[in-house]
Structures are given as structure tokens and as C-alpha cells.
Amino acid sequence: MSSAPAPPPGGPPPPGRRQRLRARWADRHALPRFGYWLLSRGAVVLTTCGALYVLNGFLIGWANAYDVLTGITSPAAVRPQWCAWPLSLTGWAAIPAIIGAAAGYVITEQIQAHHARELSDVLDELRRLAEQPGSPPSSGGGS
Question: Which of 78, 82, 47 minimizes the C-alpha distance to 65?
């Protein structure tokens, strides 16, 4: 087995595992808004929804948990109800909110990407392209 060569003396020590993890966690701010949301707030919401579904899957059965989550079955129709009601509210309010938030972020990014340039800049560029040398003259002269 070969080992990595030792760093030259006098230089800073290589970053440790903990420092690399901290740097990677700090880099999340450089992500697009949607990616940052998924790693910060979105992860908490999705984990909570997943934990509710798993808890209900074990307590009321996986098919019943799915039916309660999607609104097919009332949470009052299953036992125990204490865990089915939060799952039902999650399926009724939180899941559509998560999907709407994701769609909103994606649509906003697309709109901002298309509106990044001023109209006057686009028109100036089109005029320059139309007046490039070697293009046929735009005047009505005959030859």
C-alpha cells in the first residue's frame, strides 16, 4: 500500500475532515434558491412528513396510511386516530404547499433567467446584428 506524500514543512496543515464538512455546509449558500430551500427548510418539512407516514404505516397499516395521506380515507375511520389526524392534515395542507413551493421556485428562476437583460440591450444587439458588414443593404436600391 502506498500512502499520500507528506506536505512540505512550513506550510499550513491540510484541512481535517471536520473542516471540510463545515466548508461544504457553508457552501450551501451558493446554491440556487430552490436547492438552498431543499437543504434548509425543505429537508425539515419533508423529514417530518416522512416520519408521520412511517409512524402511521406501522400503527394503522401502510395501505391505510397512504389512503389517509391522500384523502381517500377519513382519519376518523382508522384506529388509532391520534396519529392519523396529523397525517391527514399533512396530506391536505403540507404536501400541496411543498409542491407549490417547488413549482414556484422553479418558475421564478425560469422567469428571472429570461428577464435578465433589459429590452433596450436586446434591441441594440439586434440592430448591431442587422448592420454587420457583409449583410445585404437594407435600402430599396436596385441593381
Answer: 78
